[in-house]
Protein 1
Amino acid sequence: MKRHISTVRFAFPYTVPVLSGYMVLGTAYGILMSKQEIPLFWIVFSSIFVYAGSMQFVAVALLSAGFDYPGVFLMTLIINARHLFYGLSFLQKYKDMGKIKPYLVLSLTDETFSLLCNTEPPAGVIPKWFYFYISLLNHIYWVSGSLTGGILGSLIKFETNGLEFVLTALFIVIFIDQWKSAKNHIPAVIGVLSAVVCRILFGPSDFIIPSMIVILLLLTLIKKPLERRPVK
Amino acid sequence: MNYSGTQLLLFFGLISLGTIITRVLPFLVFPENKIMPKYIKYLSDVLPFTTIGMLVVYCLKDISFTTNPFALPEIISITVIIILHLVKKNTLLSIGIGTALYMILINYVF
């Protein structure tokens, strides 16, 4: 028990940037959902069991578009496809994690991924519990934020028209950070251009799947030259 | 709008299931001792960059350059976010100011 408490103490400072981010974005999510008249129970349920920020914001947009279940499922797979790559990158790191491995795998968000990518456990701390408490703390922040937002949204009637732009802002910021860290901008440019061309050709509601196909084709075609100039 | 419990359970259940699949799949396909094929390794290196680019476009899919206000709220807010983020390098600040500016623009200016 004592060792767990000291591991939490070690882990906490690393999670502070995520704490502020998740509280703010989680609150925004809670407010947007309660504006859609989603009961608090489901807001918290989704933050515990989905726990994928960008997808949860997209879910707000999908709710207002009505219940198209196959579409919702497919959209989830597409938007969260990047998790596949996080998982692939952590195959080694999450080896021999024992009983807590399922939780580590299921709680691997963008933020937890980038945090753990750049962080080595301090000496004297068991890596697997260090990873576990960082993941758990982040999860708690996200759920607390959503709960706060859900309550605020139902209590106070304030102007939220345009609050959904928080998602656009989030992706733009991630895009800038990635752009600065990448040695090669071709993949990012391919992502934007394919989506823009498909949006023009297929219209606003049916362009994501064509975009994914075009992206995969282009990336496959330029695999050889791109491998000579790696992205990172 | 009123949703039934069943609708919401299906809706969030499917999103949860889809998310779980994307998180678990790599670990199922590549158990602890199997080597990753080169092609998958390549995709895992480049796709994160491509996906975010695509998602930025997804967020902006409904804007129109031909009807009033000619996407001006988006263009102004995004420009501010980019400049702010390049100068201040503070994620939360960029998102907060950018979103607040957008809300002011669409509610009170345009």
Protein 2
Amino acid sequence: MNRKVAGILKELGLWRVFIIVLILRSPFEFLNAILGANMLESFLRLAETRNGDALVPIFWRFLLCVILLFAYNAIVWCTISIKADMLFHKRLRKRLLESMLSRTKQEMEEYSVGDWITRLNSDVDKTADYLTAPINFMHAVIAGLNLILSSVVLIVLNTRLFIVAILIMAVFFYLSAVVIIKKIPAHRKKAQEAYAEYTNWMEPIALSGAAIRIYEGQEIVMNRVEEASNRILRENVKAHRLTAWSAVVNIFSGNVGYLLLLLVGNCMMGSGIRDFAQLSKITQYRAEMMRSVMCVNNCMNNMRTNLTGAERVEEVLNKYGI
Amino acid sequence: MIELSNVSFAYEKQTVFRDLSLKIEKGQKVGIVGESGCGKSTLLSLIAGLYSPTSGKVCVDGEIDPERISRKVSVVMQSPMLLPLTIWENITMGHDYPKERVLKVCEDVNLKKWIDALPDGLQTYLGDHADELSGGQAQRIAIARAMCKDAEILLLDEPTSALDKENNAFVLDALERYVTEKTVVHVTHRPEQLRGYDRVLFMQAGGLK
């Protein structure tokens, strides 16, 4: 976790709450991966051995596991996590207001009105998103754990296929994370700054509307507001384009990796691998690894974007005493 | 010429004037005095085309459309209403006025010395720090803006109310020199500022005396 975000959590006294939610959320992905891989292996083995009598009891056993797992996840995600999120929002807004009210006029003027509005609204949302929203820090930890545990299982099942999987992933991860995604936060930050400028114009337009009308200043005002608005659009489009490229690379790497693994696995049939059911189980774990890497990648992307807001919030709180 | 015929105006249910009539000839200087909240600023906003009357007619130089009226007047309000633009842009409001004209008005309102001392001069960005200007500087920029537009009708709404004695004198002096051939309506609660005006009217209970 970013040091500044950790500082905000500590300042708000929510560090423990956040850790508990994280621990409660963590096992889901890996348990889901075990369930999926074993389910596929069991059904394929039944099909290979033509053992139809065992199908119904296995179906009920797995169905029960799936229901229990998803009920657990729903309780943690939809109730506990949301309550923690609300608490975070409430305390952060209160602390920001306290920080604002404790400032002198001169300190208040360090930021423009538009900047204050952005810091109190979208930046607070971004900070909360960093911590609790899907495909952000919490998912990154969960996916990271899933990646480690799935890797261990794959190493135990077949080390050679693990090496093949990891090599393919490394190439695409580098391309996606280092080459493409790394550039996104800079564009998001510029868009956020342009948004603050845009918001900043709303007050003068409301308060000095009479002067704009009397002195026919509509054109110059419109041009300035449009400039900021275009800058928001331009930077967001650049970020969206990079995100789209990253998604393309992710899908391509997933498919290529799967095909290569099937090819290598089929060549190893009889020597390293027992049968097709086991190969399917292995590809399931590889898919979990792949999914986790992509999830971590996407989480990092969103976290970097949301960090721009968190940093601006921390900057305000810093004055208050973090 | 400014003509208000049987003008009534109300903010939602609160009536400010009823059947008010007023005629101001071209080149006349009229002062309107009254206590705070009696409707002086509302009257000025009606003349400036910023409000439309509830009933009756406001006619300025033959125009009755509020938007067209706004184009024919210059207004200096209590608040300078500066925008997050440069000093130059705040004065010209994006219009292509000759530089000499802008420099002349800056000199007339006693801004030139201050502007010359700024590193970026007229291109200094006021941005969100317009509040950091002194009240006098901000108000003189507003007056420079009005002078640059050079409309035939100048409407003044307590332009010196927020200024100290020294700045008050500067601003009034600059205005006095500028308004010689203009039609002026000056709203104030300080009658001593209206010395030399053609007419001084007193506003009371929504009527003019």
Protein 3
Amino acid sequence: MPLEIRRPGLMTTVQDAGRSGGYHLGMPPSGAMDLFSYEVANLLVGNTDGQAALECTYLGPEIEFTEPVRIAVTGADLPARVNGTEIESWTAHDVAAGDVLSFDFLRSGARAYLGISGGIDVPSVFGSRSTYTLVGAGGFEGRALRAGDELKVGVTGPDRRAAARSVPAALRTTHPAQVELRVVVGLASYRVVPASLAAFFSTDWRVTSDANRVGYRYRGGGIDFVARTPPAGAGSDPANVVDIGYPVGSIQVPGGSEPIALLRDAVTGGGYATIATIISADIARAGQSRSNDVTRFVEVSLDEALTARREAADRLNRVRSALGFD
Amino acid sequence: MTEHIVHAPFPGTFYRRPDPDSDVFVTESQHVEAGTVIGLIEVMKMFQEITAEQPGTLVQFLVENDAPVDAGQPIARLT
């Protein structure tokens, strides 16, 4: 098989752009936490049909190739080596049968994306090859890779190779240890004491150890909810509501401590008030922050969030142009 | 004597004991083998064993129990 996993890394999963249309059934999008880096990894290796890549979290895998393929590493600064020699990230490289890809310790960011020409060939589940880690669906047998796994790749169209092999430095993502995540306040922010909501935005929140694809938990203070008699159907926790849909990026605060931001493997609904939602353009930035990093939340309007979304799409288009795609 | 540093392979919380009620995995100045578990790192709701990586004497822990660690951070010194 083209990819032989010698060491699996900490949490390496097959991901693509995710699955849509199932949120009302409890099926979150999954897919790459950093969609921009995933898309660029694919472009570099000539994949233009939403092929699947590998998302490598915190500690990279060691992979032996048994066929020539084109690879590219994007996302976090997880330095890659082929046969022990460091290779540049955000750049396409051709590897031969017998070549071994390995990674040094993570320097910044959290998740690196390994694009492979042809994409990772696993069955499509509910329209996507992404791994939904919480229930073990999709991807490679619904789980993170293990030593000894063998992965197939698809076929690359011969005329889809990127004309340029490397992304210009200005378009690559950098990963500061302290991040700002833009949020739109709501849906149930009226349940929060106003002074407490203001304090939420001036607190340095630290990402806890258990942050993962389902959600990131933050430590650094509490949230005070407006006291009221719970309506029938709501629990007795002041943060409870009867029922509410949880947008991807929404922030809830069970018990008033340790806010949780739901991410790509989000639980899609439940009984906690959501106080603000990370904008779609900053989900990647959340997914590139790490346990123990400091995060600040910044309030933006819906219009600003939509502008940010357009800017993110624009940035990907500039990468497309720079690599010779139209 | 050559020194070997064990580094945290990924970020998380480092523990010297398997659970709060147990003894530490190893004490300073204890002899260890390559596969000896010297601690755990908790991350993404998983507990990962950290081993000595080579035989020797565990001279010093560079991180305390229940302390945050970053990827690549030195955890212990062996000779």
